[in-house]
Amino acid sequence: xxxVIVNDxxxxxxTKKAVVNAVxxxxxxxxxxxxxxxxxxxGAGKTSLFRMLTTLLLPDGGNASVDGSDIVKDFKAIRxxxxxxxxxxxxxxxLTVEENMNxxxxxxxxxxxxxxxxVKDIYVQIEPFKKRRAGKLSGGMKQKLSLSCAxxxxxxxxxxxxxxTGVDAVSRKEFWEMLKRLKQQGITxxxxxxxxxxxxxxxxxxxxxxxxxxxxxxxxxxxNAFKETVLAIKADNMYRLLNDLATYGDIKDSYSFGEYHHAxxxxxxxxxxxxxxxxxxxxxxxxxxxxxxxxxxxFMQLMKN
Length: 305
Ligand SMILES: Nc1ncnc2c1ncn2[C@@H]1O[C@H](COP(=O)(O)OP(=O)(O)OP(=O)(O)O)[C@@H](O)[C@H]1O
Hints:
Residues 4-235 form the ABC transporter domain. By secondary structure, the chain is α/β, with parallel strands linked by helices.
């Protein structure tokens, strides 16, 4: 069963003179209990998309349904059945952990006790601090409290807007494990993130850039669509190396990639000739090997096309 259906959705901001086309007619579907990632850089349109799907923003074109309800006509029904964790911490900083939880439970006509089994795994980690004001929690704790509040009314669909941005590596890992457990309870989860490495933790993803979906599918299918050979290259002067790789004849595309640069090679390239060229350019400590492309390589390729 489809949990979310998005059909040619459009969002524009501004006036006729200076218009920003934040979402440019995107379409996708999410199955029930699927963990679906929207992966894209800042400004891609992820927040605008989530705000339309959670009925906080009206679309300028297209339509969408969430758990069978139309995002415009049935907005009230949607508000009762979705959970939304916005990108910016938006709980009451002056209320304690417990007061925030009770507040959200009350507005949805429920109680912490009623849905404790759903939030238990997450809430036990912040329960020792239940008398602490939300504003005084660490980043990871704030994130857990936000998720607990978004879950308190047992939503069928959960929207998480960049939940791991600015969160330390350990909390990020724990967070994704929590999402897997929620999915097992039948909750559909849409999560946006600028981190490409989080794509592999989703069942399916959509790569978003400039208000458009460049590609969608399982992380494996997206990577498999990348057919070229990628060389990982490093040397003593990485900045100069990037410029030299950009102008080298056998290289289609090159970009920084962690401690290496990635070079997408043209067919029939000659690795020895490239090594020789780098030697002639007086590079030292040159390291070069063929590497398995990842989502980020595919994203770069799609963006440039
Ligand atoms: N209220 C607004 N008025 C004008 N432009 C806006 C408004 N909100 C968003 N935008 C613009 O729309 C585009 C998409 O923004 P959006 O916040 O949806 O993207 P995002 O992928 O969530 O990125 P971020 O992580 O930076 O929020 C950006 O160019 C942004 O500047």
